[in-house]
Amino acid sequence: MNEYAVEHEISGHEPHWETSPWPLVLSMAMLFVFPFAFSLYFVYGKPIMAILSLGIGIPLTVLSVAGWISEGVGQTREPGYSVKAMPFFIVAEAFIFVAFFVGYWVMRLSASSWPPAGTPEIALTVPIIMTIVLVSSSFTIHLSEQKMEHGDRGGFLMWLIVTIILGTLFLGLSMNEYSHLFAEGFNFKTNAYSTAFFSITGFHASHVFVGIAMFICILIPALMGKMSKSFVKSASMYWHFVDIIWFFVVTQVYFWS
Asked: How does 30-45 read in b/e, with b if 16+ C-beta sit within 10 Å?
């Protein structure tokens, strides 16, 4: 027990749920699942090492989600710092996206012709549908948060589940598009545009995946009657960030290709 908890135990108050190791574990898992595995396979040509990286990252992801859920089920007080800490995390993630976009802009503006040879015509219908789905999910998580504030547990759960479904649909549409592009011979190694396309959209998709994981970590305890307002607010804040970033992704990578 930390000093903060001891102090509150002595004073007769319940200790806050101030810290959790699971966000760090999930972040490490994402490193193994995405950049490490992708780099090992596509940059260094080591498929066995890439599979090993996935073998480490995927179980860590499941473990972190399970750990988060167990904390949510067992908690008795609100977490103390999640809402205040989330903006710092969002800013850090925003800078990573900026790095991706700057790299894309340098390639795009310095190329004599764009897109490079070998790039199929990418239809805009699917990204428009994906945009509608993701924007809708921002509204649904906002509605879920509002229902929670008014003590409407049923409404909170309903809109939270709708948000999870919309996020999953977004990922499904993305994977479906990937499969069609792969079938046309357009993959990570086709040309500079394909590398940028899959890197940027894939990095965004990883954030959608993490957001869905966070919502599941909220949903399961909520079904057992444990609702953390701070956790919901911080997850909602993160989801709105993912939604806003998508507008940059879709305009730069799809419409300005």
From this structure: bebbbbbbbebbbeee
- Contact residues for 9 (Cβ-Cβ < 8 A; gap 6+): 1, 15
pTM of the model: 0.81
Q: How far does the chain reach from its first CA to its final CA, in angstroms?
A: 54
C-alpha radius of gyration, the chain, whole number:
20
State the residue for tokens 């709105």: 240
C-alpha 110/C-alpha 193 separation (Å) is: 13
**Measured distance CA(119)–CA(192) in Å, rounded:** 10
Query: Residues with Cβ < 8 Å from 237, sequence gap 6 or more?
Result: 83, 86, 87, 90
φ, ψ for residue 17 (rounded to 5)? -85, 85
At 15 the pLDDT is 42
DSSP 3-state of 79: strand
Contact of 250 with 131, CB cutoff 8 Å: yes
CA distance 110 to 101: 14
Amino acid 27: pLDDT = 81
Per-residue pLDDT of 163-217, as tens digits, reads: 999 999 999 999 999 999 999 999 888 999 998 999 899 889 989 988 998 899 8
The reported pLDDT for the residue numbered 75 is 58
Separation between Cα atoms, residue 186 and residue 159, nearest integer Å? 37
Contacts of 41 (CB under 8 A, 6+ apart): 47, 50
Is residue 178 a contact partner of residue 199, using CB atoms and an 8 Å limit? no
CATH number at 84-257: 1.20.120.80
